[in-house]
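Ticket closed. Logging final result for Histidinol-phosphatase.
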Amino acid sequence: MYDFHVRSLYSAGCRYDIEKMVKAAIKKKIKLVYIADFYEINEKKDWDMSFDLYEYRNEIQRINKKYDEIEILSAIELGIDESEYGRFDALMDNVQVDMIILSTHKVNGVYLSDERFYSEKHTLEIYEEYYTEILESIRSFDNFDVVGHLDLIDRFKERYYMDLEFTKYKKIISDILKEIIEKDKSIEINTSGYHSIVNRPYPKKEILTMYKKLGGEKIVIGSDADKPEFIGYKHKELISDLKDIGFNHITVYRKRIPHMVRF
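Final structure:
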């Protein structure tokens, strides 16, 4: 069993260091884990949520050498403003990680958890703005490997009284998935949704089914765990569901190079 998205002290809100998270993964008999802490680059540099990537990568490598039972790889979950693509590219010229997950947590500079994003808007408008942000990011930026938790917007639907049928916005989802396939990227299936109101992974089954029908093959599975008990959460059940849809492989990245591995 693999987990492509585990966080540590390098992420705000996580109280556990990398080694403690790795030990928990070993206890769960996980054979490969990516430490993928959140790394955000903002137009206003003082608002960055960043850390020393050299130190981070070296700490992961140190722990990887210490434990034979598991392979530990380096990743980041990237949030980035469009104006900062060049700054991030320059940074990546000087430091190597194994995988980059591109995630959308805000639209037009406003976080999805902020009620300002939802005020005085119809539900369809909210969804269109969110998915347009994702589509434009994928079209204009290439320095990533995986698109993270694609339909995270659903996490907030009860808080802001949103409920929209998939058919109402499936066209833009189709455009996003085609772009991901065209650029040969992966999508993350993120099991943190089981801890939220949606009680399912991100993205939903309808999106995964569409992705497969469009020819999408590259997927990774991540828990987004910030506590040891959440590592690998529901992954066995999820793999069974993915096989039913038609997926047979996950995509392992080492030094940003993808390798297809059968479940």
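The domain at 2-262 is CATH 3.20.20.140 (TIM Barrel). No further action required.
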